[in-house]
Every structure is written in structure tokens, then in C-alpha cells.
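Much of the work behind modern protein science is quiet bookkeeping, done one molecule at a time. The protein below has been through that process, and both of its lines are reproduced in full.
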Amino acid sequence: MKPQTHRYKEIAREQMADRRARGFLDLLRAVAEKRKSAYEDFPNPDAAREYSRAVRAAAVARLPQLLEQFEKSASRAGAKVYWAADAEDANAYIVRLAKERNISYVIKGKSMVTEESGLNEALAAEGVQPYESDLGEFIIQLLERPPFHIVGPAINIDPQEISDIFIEKGVMSDATTDPVELGYAARCYLREKFHHLEMGITGINMAVAETGTIINVENEGNIRFCKSSPDIQVSIMSLEKVVPTMKEALFVLRTLCRSATGQKLGAYVSMDTGPKKKEEIDGPSELHIVILDNGRSTIYEDAAYREVLQCIRCGACLGNCPIYGKIGGYSYGWAYSGPMGQALTPLLLGLDRTKDLYYSCTLCRTCRDVCPAGLHHPRLLRRHRQKQREKDPVFHGSGLKVREEIGLRGFALAAATPTLWRSAIRAARLAMNRKSHGGIIREVLGKSEGWLASRDLPCVGSPTFNEWFRKNRS
């Protein structure tokens, strides 16, 4: 999927006017409450979250060693490990493997990293048809849209639209808007593909260094089909997914499921160590594990940015973010949305291309508070802004445009001078209230866009609290 981050503001406005999208975003807030209650069965929920964060931080701190250990363990178990420098390299390896084996189509399990790499497009360009097997991913593949949410990629799609695209693409012949029937139609369509499947592709939720085990979590069972049905399995992961031991992996798994969907555990958890053994009847004869860098080594070298690699893609930050809760996932223009997308995408695509992402944040810290992996999203976004100001030639001096710098210096002077501050407040109150209509201020400095475009600002009261207090104190 080609990034569309430059259309952030345009798409955000469209989504804010979409009542159906807003309804589903309200639903996500209910899921956020479910996440909170799911942690209550831990003896100490805060301690559980902190331990999960400590595990991820320690894993990232030892990332080079753990990756080498994982490669040795996985290879010893019979897997073939390939190190891909970038998305093009990873895609070329998988396409080459498919072409060498005369594979005409592949079925994929849900994988954000293949969204990042654009694997579907690379396969299709070489005549290998990819089919997404996750229901949400299957729907957005047919609609040719990015994921709306990293856990529920099609949660916002109307059943009528799903019915229409299923009929258009030959998934079913009779129209229906019943969600169960739509799901059954997709299942029947894909089940026939599984019968003749020779190559399956999945992502990886976690990789265990000590055993070479790869772990997948899901609720539909399609990933398990992709791993057990074909003779060739390809599993691709970004290099930060490794953890030291199975014990630590199992604990992170508990916080991952709670943070993602409010479940104590996903419906299906698959753990695979190498291809199938001689005595086993299910599983691939060949297991290829592709470890994708795609700029993450550069991220790792910067100590201030390294913590972004701790993310486990649970999506908890999305459900609690006031920005995502207004505009949804399409606005972010790529595979990753919400606070984790605002932190990670600029590092993968470049600060210049993604300015709207990291400037669109209130720095409220809600994402930081709910993250089970220990990311301090606001700190990362502030660093993005600082680095952009330092390198942008249209900025001046301290990093701010001249007009903005003058304004902030004036604010600092007024804030440090009580008499000047009181005079400025009185002048601002008169100027702003003159622009009011029906008790609501409609514009500031002649502008009605931005903050006032979606919020009501009441008239500035008179007297101010300080004026009232000085007059009435005894």
C-alpha cells in the first residue's frame, strides 16, 4: 500500500463528517473500557503492566544479541531464516520463492508488516494472486482501502457495502446484509482456496530467542490454516518482535490480548518451532522466516528513538486517543494509525513526509498510560517536532517561524509581567467577545479554521477569576 500521509488533513475532515465512522469510533471507546476491566484479574494490574513494559524494554536493549540467538535456534529447528534489509528485499525473496515453486496464488494471515512492505502489490505484479484470509483484511483488500484500525481493519464498513463488493467480486451471488451470512460467504470462498493451497504467508506476533519459536495470536483461525494447510510457509516479522524466553513471551501475550481486545487470551494461539517433524501430519515441510529491517536498525542506533521498537501492535493507544477517536484510521494514510503510527511512521517514511502526523497530538499522555509495552508517545512526538524544526529551512533561529517566535516571545513577556498580563487579558476579552454570536466565539484573529472548526469556545467571562477574587477577598 502506497503511503498517503500527505492527505492527512483532507481525509480527517471527510471522516469527521462521516456519521457512520463516528459511530464505530464511539464503539472503540467501549472496547477501551473492556480492556481496563480485563486487567482486573491480575493481583496487581499496574504491576502487571509495568512488568510487561520491563520485558519489552529489556528485549529491545539486547536486540542484536537476541536476534542472533533466535536465528541460531530457528535454524537448528529446521527453519530457513532470511534477513531482509528493506521492504523491496523482503518482497523479492517471497516473490522469488513463489515463482521458483510455480505458485499461482498464496493465502495470507493478518500481518501489519506486509501492509508496510506492500507485499500484496509485489506478488500481484509478478502474477501471484494474494488472498487475505482475515475477514477484515479480506474486505479491505476487495475494497482497496487501508486498515481503519490495526486490530479491526474493516470495523467501520457498512454491511451493505460489504454485500455489494462480495457480489461484484464473486464471493457470493445473493445479496444479504446479515453479518453472519457475510462471514459465512467469505469463509466458503476462502475454504475452497485452502484445499489447494501450496504456500501460506503470515506475520509474527512474537519470536522467542531461546527456542526459535514463532507465536501468532488470532480470533478467527485463518492464521492457523495458513500455517498447517500448505507445504510451504513464510512468516515475516519486523526485527523488534523478538523476546528472550518463552516465560517472558507468555506474560507479554497476556497483556497483548487484554490490551488489544479486552480478552484474557485470543481464541487461537499458535506456537511453531521449525517445520513439521516426520511424525507430524499437519504443518509445512518448509518454514521460511523473513526478518525485516526496513529502517529499524537506524532507529535502534538513536537512543532517544529506540523505545519505539518496544511496541507490540496491540492497538490500545488508538482506542484511548482523542485524535484517533475523532478522525479514525484512514487519515494516517498508511499501515499504522493512532499514536503508535504517529510515533513510528515518521521514522520509517521520513519527518518531511509526515509532518501532519506528529503535529496532530494534544500530548495528553493517555496513550502512554495505557501502553503495555512502555512507549512514551508524547516524548517521541516532541522529538519529531524538535528534529523537524532543526532541519526545516523555512524555520528561523530557535526553530520557529518568525511570526510564531514573536508571538511566543510576547506571550512569555506578558506571562512574566502581571500588569502587562492583566492589560492583555482585558484587551483580548474585548476583541474576542466582539466576534461572538449567540454566546460562542466564532473566530480568533480573523480565522475560523483549526480548533474552532470543530469546537465551541464560549465568550470570555467578565470579571476574570482573579478580578473577582481581588474584589471579594476579605
